[in-house]
Design brief:
Helix content: 10-25%
Structural class: alpha+beta
Number of strands: 4
Strand content: over 45%
CATH superfamily: Gcn5-related N-acetyltransferase (GNAT)
Number of helices: 2
Strand order of the largest sheet: 1-2-3-4
CATH class: Alpha Beta
Largest sheet: 4 strands, antiparallel
CATH topology: Aminopeptidase
Length: 65
């Protein structure tokens, strides 16, 4: 099992992102400023996008498995 941070080409994972957020224009609002992680375990199993909202607050914007 491997969890990897995705720095570039985050839109490559759009089909999985759309499972958690059905509107691509909404995904575009946070994807570039969020930190994205993917889980691989014999294939892509999940993804998570976390944003820093300031004042020590982190928010999970997208989570799909």
């Amino acid at each position: 099992m491997e969890i990897k941070e995705i720095i570039e080409n985050k839109k490559h994972y759009l089909p999985l992102l759309l499972l958690a957020d059905e509107q691509e224009d909404m995904i575009d609002l946070y994807l570039s400023r969020g930190t994205m992680y993917v889980l691989n375990d014999g294939g892509l199993k999940g993804e998570c996008v976390v944003t820093d909202e300031g004042d020590g607050i982190l928010e999970i914007k997208n989570l799909a498995v």
